Amino acid sequence: MSTAKAICCLAVFYWLLGITSATAEATGQQRAQAAGRAILGAAAPRLVLKTIDGDAIDLGSLYGKKAVYLKFWATWCVPCREQMPHFEHTYETAGPDMAVIAIDVGFNDSLEAIQAFRKKLGITMPIVFDDGSLGTAFHLRVTPTHIVIGRDGRIQYVGHLADKELDAALVAARTPTNGGPHAAAMAGNDTPPVGVGDLLPKRSLRTLDGQRFELHPGAAHHQLTVLVFLSPWCESYLATTRPEVSANCRSARVQFSALGSDPRLRWLGIASGLWANSEDLRKYRAEYKVSIPLTLDASGEVFRAFRVNDVPTVLIADAGGRIVRRIEGSATQDAAALRTAVDAL
Q1: In the chain, what percentage of residues exceed pLDDT 90?
Q2: SS3 assignment, position 289
């Protein structure tokens, strides 16, 4: 097959998945590098990682001795699967001067799925299941994302593609520097999660239309507050790799669309910033005729505050702003789940 035909076939393959090859590669690389600009050259955080096998990896103790290669990925991510042979080869040939660690992003994934994936592909490198803190620390926006940390403890490369640029960064990161490790301490997220029984925080979020949405309703409101955590690509992209999750997202959307004009409720759809920007969210709103206010959680800070790792997740707070219900996962498949929960309050 000619090169031109091969490229054409690959493009069709991605199109069938809802993302064209050219768009996936260009957008992925651009998004990863744009998000990474703020941390390039910065001291990498000192973190102790725990693998899914129970082992501890102290990143801080590696700085000054080894380069570190972190790859953020997910079992449902098609490019991640395609890049896995490159990743495994890098681990197997890393040698004593580089640590290679796989970071599952923990978004709509599970320990069981990771273990099955590891067994199927014969993956041998250490794997960490992120709770969102690593993704936040390294400004994660797409999967896969490659983070290369030099021996001096500074972040040298952020990217999306497994290409010559990444390979060159991996080689360069091994080079010793005159300075010692410059890794910065990273404060842990000691803020307790906001969950059922807690009051919504007094915080303002800007919607897609530039309006302000106060999470805590205050005394002026007498409505229930419904927060819908979502992803604009869940229904389309995950239809292939996670059909059950795709169905959950569709069911939740149908339900909040049906109840969107209910005067008892005030709504906010909070979209994950993973593989999504404001334009993606606008397209989602237009395609599905979503009428509730939407906001983009680009940094993942809001998802993390409410400890949301899966979409769809729905939180319902009473008129006083206290969270009384959390609906997530397969529970959203019940076509009456939202209405039943609202009518019961």
Answers
A1: 85
A2: coil
Say what the alpha-carbon torsion angle 35, 40, 44, 50 is, to the nearest 10 degrees.
Answer: 40
Contacts of 110 (CB under 8 A, 6+ apart): none
Residue 201: exposed, middle, or buried by beta-carbon count in 10 A (0-12, 13-18, 19+)? Answer: middle
DSSP string, 79-106: HHHHHHHHHHHHHHT--TTEEEEEEE--
Stated pTM of the model: 0.88
Query: Average pLDDT, stretch 279-298?
Result: 97
pLDDT tens sequence across 32-62: 999 999 999 999 999 999 999 999 999 999 9
Higher pLDDT: 173 or 183? It is: 173
CATH number of the structural domain 204-343: 3.40.30.10
pLDDT greater than 50 at residue 20: no
Phi, psi of 325 (to 5 degrees): -140, 145
Domains 19-185 and 204-343 share a fold: yes
Report the CATH fold assignment for 19-185: Glutaredoxin (3.40.30)
* Domain extents in the chain: 19-185, 204-343
- Looking only at the bridges linking them, the beta strands covering 155-159 and 145-149 are antiparallel
Give the model confidence (pLDDT) of 178-233 as tens digits.
555 555 544 445 578 999 999 999 999 999 999 999 999 987 778 999 999 999 99
If you count them, how many residues does the chain have? 345
DSSP assignment of 246-280 equals: HHHHHHHHHHHHHTTT-TTEEEEEEEE-TT--HHH
Closest residue by Cα to residue 328 from 344, 307, 345, 305 = 307
What span, in angstroms and rounded, lies between the C-alpha atoms of 343 and 327?
Answer: 14
Q: What is the identity of the amino acid at 342?
A: V
Element spanning 155, H or E: strand 155-159
Q: Which residues pair with 207 in a beta bridge?
A: none
Q: Evaluate whether 39 touches 158 at the Cβ level (below 8 Å).
A: yes
What single DSSP character describes residue 327?
E
Comparing 172 with 188, the larger pLDDT belongs to 172
pLDDT computed for residue 10 by the predictor: 36
